[in-house]
Amino acid sequence: MRRSNIFRLGYKIVYISILVSMATVVHSVERFLPFLPSPVPGAKLGLANIFTLVTLNLFGFIEGVYVALLRTFLAALITGNFSITFILSISGAVLSTVIMGLMVKFFKKYISNMGISIVGAIFHNIGQLLAASFFLNSFLFFSYLPYLLLFAIPTGIFVGLCTNFILRILDKNIQIN
């Protein structure tokens, strides 16, 4: 491996580590926020997905999956929450990241980060409901999906806007490639 490639790999590891760290902190803090009263119990903003979507845009699919998996695992480790909520969280994170990664790779010319984020939020909910249905042996959880979608759309818009803002700042100030 050439020396310049080693330095590039080193920078890539540093950037991804920073993104994992930021996503982990946001994921952990968001878990403890008694934020806005929500008509949808259990709904969260999903702010850690900002860093997953940033990673998908800057580095690609595999790195995005790493960020999603590592932040979910590390947040569970920090909060001591290796229970059914961890399973639900990682199920939603993996499914939404895979779908968003495919969209970034194949449809980025046609769909904005906001659209990708909305679809990611929807599939995050679907992943969680699939996991809950599997573990509790009932597909009745999917009757909750319309209510979750009402929350997923505005939070997906917000995450997409934040992602665009961060990407603009990084584009102006930091050379990634």
3D architecture notes:
The chain is mainly α and 177 residues long. It has one domain (3-173): Arp2/3 complex 21 kDa subunit ARPC3 (Orthogonal Bundle). Helices cover 77% and strands 0% of the residues. The chain has helices at 3-32, 49-58, 61-79, 84-107, 113-136, 145-173. The longest helix is centred in the first third of the chain and has 30 residues, at 3-32.
Give a brief description:
With 177 residues, this protein is mainly alpha-helical. The chain has 6 helices and no strands.
Task: Give keywords.
single chain, 0% strand, 177 residues, Hpre_diP_synt_I
How does the SSE layout of this entry go?
Blueprint: H1 3-32, H2 49-58, H3 61-79, H4 84-107, H5 113-136, H6 145-173
Rg, alpha carbons: 16 Å
Number of helices: 6
Q: What's the helical proportion of residues?
A: over 70%
- Topology, number of strands: 0
| CATH fold-level assignment | Arp2/3 complex 21 kDa subunit ARPC3
Poorly predicted segments? none
Number of domains: 1
Sum up the overall morphology in one term: globular
Our measurement of the CA-to-CA distance between the termini, rounded to an integer number of angstroms, reads: 17 Å
User: What's the order of the H and E elements?
Assistant: HHHHHH
By CATH, the architecture is named Orthogonal Bundle
Strand content: under 5%
Mean pLDDT figure:
87
Q: What can be said about the biggest beta sheet?
A: none
Per CATH, the class reads Mainly Alpha
User: What structural category arises from helix and sheet content?
Assistant: mainly alpha
